[in-house]
Amino acid sequence: MTRVIAIANQKGGVGKTTTTVNLAASLAAMKRRILLVDMDPQANATTGIGLDKHEQRTTLTDVLLGEAHVTEILHKLPDSSLHVLPGSPELTVAEVSLMSKERREYHLKEALAPLQGAYDYVLIDCPPSLNMLTVNALVAATGIIIPMQCEYYALEGLSALVGTIERITQTANPDLQVMGLVRTMYDPRSNLARDVSEQINAFFRNKVYNTAIPRNIRLAEAPSHGLSALEYDKSSRGALAYLALAAEILRKDAAKAVSNGELAW
């Protein structure tokens, strides 16, 4: 069964794309079949994985609007089990056009349906807003991972996202669950970071991943080379942190599968 995960937070600059790209690369390195879906019109996940967002003739916009099949835009990265559905700036057109469509919240879910079973994980990079593209991602997903910085304003924005998730579970996708929160750009030397981290743990309890992603120059440099941190510098603190996060996610999913009486792969 394919696990579809939305990486979402309506606040910008919290490491959504960095998390999507590097978590995808880390899971692929662990021999999982991975599909990365770039739903952000900025298409930074597309360029960060080594593709040119301006060279795509047929895009995710065409798929969302029913003008192309998902397999037409599927990119298979060389020597990897990581595949990509690239984004493009034209996704802003899709967002506007979807507003007048029937079943507008379900277009991504229906587009991905033919790929069910072909991948172990589908990771969706969401835009930094609670718009129709993000809603499509949340309706298509079975789980959501929320990257967030340990700062005051991040807590304020989190409540809006939680409210959106609750509305979607009540109306369009009752299977959607918060898998966990990832603390990004984390500096344990900062009093504020530690205080906010404690507040997050108190509120979300076991939903906060033990792995925190540190501030790391290699994580910042890697996208300019079209590489994940694992490809750019596999011994860097950033690459090792995302490998640890991937392992933690796999352990939790395996434990959940066993408790549900399912066979864990």
TrEMBL record:
Residues 3-178 form the AAA domain. CDD domains: ParAB_family (cd02042). It comes from the Bacteria. Pfam families: AAA_31 (PF13614). This is ParA family protein. It comes from Candidatus Thiothrix phosphatis. The lineage of its organism: Bacteria, Pseudomonadati, Pseudomonadota, Gammaproteobacteria, Thiotrichales.
